[in-house]
Amino acid sequence: MSQCIGMVTHVRVATHASDVDGIVSAALILIKYPNAKIDYLTLKDLNSAMGIEYDLIVDLPKLPLAKANVDHHISNYERVTKNNLMTDKDLIDPAAPSAASLLIKYLNLENNPRARKLVDLANIADTGGYSKKTYILDKIIKCHSKEPDILHKIAWILVEKGEEFLDDEWLKNEWKRISDFLEKGREISKKIVKDVLKRKVKNLIVDLIKGFPRLAISDLQWLFINKGGEVIVVINRMRDNDPICPSLSKNANDDTARISIRVSKKSTFNGRELAEKLGGGGHVKAAGARVKASEYYNALGLIIHELSRNGIVGYIRIEIS
Questions:
Q1: Is position 1 within any domain?
Q2: Count of domains in the chain?
Q3: Could you tell me if 197 and 156 lie in one domain?
Q4: Helices (DSSP H) in 281-321: which residue ranges?
Q5: Which pTM value belongs to this model?
Q6: What is the 3-state secondary structure of 213-244?
Q7: Which of 75, 194, 213, 250 is deepest in the core (most CB within 10 A)?
Q8: Average pLDDT, whole number, for the chain?
Q9: What is the mean pLDDT of residues 260-289?
């Protein structure tokens, strides 16, 4: 795939703000275009970005004025093909392990050793794999997912350090700052998972009301799946401030419930289909949605109904003072 932005040296790009794939993609852009202006967006931010003429959007759905889109989400692929929005400047492949794995080709960086190593990190993180490096990087990114200046700093660290990004002093100190808080969440998660699996629960709904470390939500999901569970749906309705990652609770009172769905690789359950019924999307094994607080009980009923087809459903409400 030839590079499609042309000879322009100042480009405007949007990439996903809250995961390793999105920030690795930002680093690849900076390797190619050091002066690029990068907007770090969550899915919720897309509506406010509709009127921006991006040269490239990565790891996010294609916006109307975007000149090009590089992505690997099947929901985006289906939408652009159905509506005839695909052009020869787009590279959207649902079979790709990450958006970064497509972007490295798009930007002609395949012969760059540092870029290749960074893409390896994105592939591990976005396919449900695990390494200590990707785990630490993911947690730091998520802690600052609503702070674009810090995300840009992390992207530059990846450019400068490559796979040895943990040599950076700022990242070292940041990991030290959040690791104890994460451990608290993991300990709570272990107790939950041990209890529900002892009861033969294979499909779990966790309703978070207060006090659970937001940064540890994915650990709870991973632990449940790794210990033998099939499907876990976490509904985040917390309104309290996050003491370690304040930006994660910045919009805590926005009157929405955030729903995250994770599915075991061994399960035939389709997480994306459930997310789409809730107004969201994603991958078969990892998907999500947002619903208004007023629609919470309807959403919960739908989730229970869909999960019950897959076996015993457990429900836990967590409210920690």
A1: no
A2: 2
A3: no
A4: 296-308
A5: 0.86
A6: CHHHHHHHHHHHHHCCCCEEEEEECCCCCCCC
A7: 213
A8: 93
A9: 94
Is residue 5 domain-resident?
A: no
221 and 155 in a single domain? The answer is no
Length of the chain: 321
How does pLDDT run across 68-88, given as a tens digit for each residue? 999 999 889 999 999 999 999
Residue 231 forms beta bridges with which residues? 203, 263
Within a domain: residue 58?
yes
Radius of gyration of the chain (CA): 19
Q: Which long-range contacts (CB under 8 A, 24 or more apart) does 180-183 make?
A: 181/213, 181/215, 181/216, 181/243, 181/244, 182/139, 182/213, 182/215, 182/216, 182/219
In single-letter form, the type of residue at position 113 comes to P
Closest by alpha carbon to 106, among 133, 136, 72? 72
Encoding tokens for residue 113?
Answer: 């050793």
Instruction: Give the sheet arrangement for strand 203-210, strand by strand.
Output: 281-282, 286-292, 256-263, 231-236, 203-210, 313-319
**Cα maximum dimension of the chain:** 61
Identify whether residues 145 and 239 lie together within a single domain: no
The answer to whether residues 79 and 209 belong to one domain is no
Shared domain for 155 and 26, answered yes or no, is: yes
Domain that holds residue 52: 12-167
> In which residue are the tokens 């070292």 written?
172
